[in-house]
Specification:
Helix content: 25-40%
Number of strands: 11
Largest sheet: 6 strands, mixed
Order of helices and strands: EHHHHEEHEEHHEHEEEHEHEH
Strand content: 25-35%
Structural class: alpha/beta
CATH class of the largest domain: Alpha Beta
Length: 329
């Protein structure tokens, strides 16, 4: 993108062809030679320098034209864009208790499908800081809040059942995540708690933890996973290896809904892989980062280049008019 800061100066360029015309029409004439052999001299071939007698004037005119263009201030613009984002800080809280091995979420168990859905959610939150807490009998911060989503995805891939002693400490998980979010200066602070059971361990009551989250302005979205009723669950048999039995895994829907309501968020129920993906899609829509795009153009001055060219023309004109193309009356 190129522009002239003072385009009206270019009107003066009309003087350039006028100078050329006046030079041709009214230019100085070489005085007549008063020698008897002038006719013979006229028949002599003209040297190269004689044929270039017009060059100093042409260089002077070109210098004037370059100076006029420089006075018009030509500028080259480089377009750019600045993105300002008011990010959302999000803690992903994932249940890794043994009940997540239930295989009612095809084509694999609950945790495997949950990890795939969460990974897809992470990939869509470019401008947000995300962290991760996993919990069973205890809660562990797997990843603090970070913009490095690659490391977060690496840690997510390592999440597995058995990394924490078995149990379901929902209150501890909320309290641990609150500790990670409470000092954040983000415009919006949320956690997404995914579990398939009810609170059976930990020192902190889930409702108490939710009240603490509300005090810090943190919204807790709760997601209850599992289709309900009897579900296939793998057991290790010393004789037959892995065998499946139908078991019932209770989920505290009322408690999860209370947690979400207390903090100004929502409770979601996911009974299969498709509905779990739909839950995270909806949360992604509800908690969007406000992005302000500011477009600008940065201009670079080109006038100095035209001035240097004009100076070179004038220097060449001066040298030539005082040496090989010098004129004498």
């Amino acid at each position: 993108m190129t522009r002239l800061a003072y385009p009206w100066v270019m009107l003066a360029l009309v003087a350039v062809p006028a100078l050329v015309y006046l030079r041709v029409r009214w230019g100085a004439r070489v005085p007549s030679l008063r020698y008897s052999n002038v006719g013979e001299l006229a028949r002599l071939p003209r040297s190269l320098w004689a044929r270039l007698a017009w060059l100093p004037f042409a260089l002077r005119v070109a210098a004037i034209a370059c100076l006029l263009v420089a006075l018009a201030r030509p500028q080259r613009g480089a377009a750019g864009e600045e993105i300002r984002a008011e990010g959302v800080d999000i803690m992903l809280v994932i249940d890794v208790s043994s009940s997540m091995l239930a295989e009612d979420f095809r084509p694999n168990n609950r945790l495997h499908v949950a990890k795939e859905v969460v990974a897809d959610f992470i990939a869509r939150r470019d401008n947000d800081r995300l962290g991760m807490t996993v919990f069973a009998r205890h809660a562990i911060t797997k990843t603090p809040l970070t913009l490095d989503h690659d490391i977060l995805l690496t840690h997510l891939d390592d999440v597995d059942i058995g990394s924490v002693a078995d149990g379901t400490a929902i209150g501890n998980a909320i309290a641990s995540s609150v500790n990670r979010l409470k000092d954040s200066d983000a415009e919006s602070r949320i956690m997404i708690l995914l579990t398939d059971g009810e609170n059976t361990a930990g020192e902190v009551d889930p409702v108490t933890a939710a009240q603490v989250a509300r005090t810090f302005g943190i919204r807790v979205y709760t997601v209850g996973v599992g289709r309900g009723g009897l579900v296939p669950y793998p057991f290790h048999d010393p004789l037959y290896g892995t065998v499946y039995r139908e078991v019932e895994i209770p989920i505290d829907e009322e408690g999860l809904e209370q947690i979400a309501t207390l903090t100004g968020a929502q409770f979601f129920r996911a009974r299969d892989a498709e509905s779990l993906k739909a839950v995270y899609d909806e949360i992604d829509t509800l908690e969007r980062t406000e992005i302000e795009q500011i477009q600008y153009v940065r201009y670079t001055e080109l006038a100095p280049y035209f001035m240097l060219v004009a100076l070179a023309f004038l220097a060449a004109e001066t040298v030539l008019s005082r040496t090989r193309l010098a004129r004498f009356p």
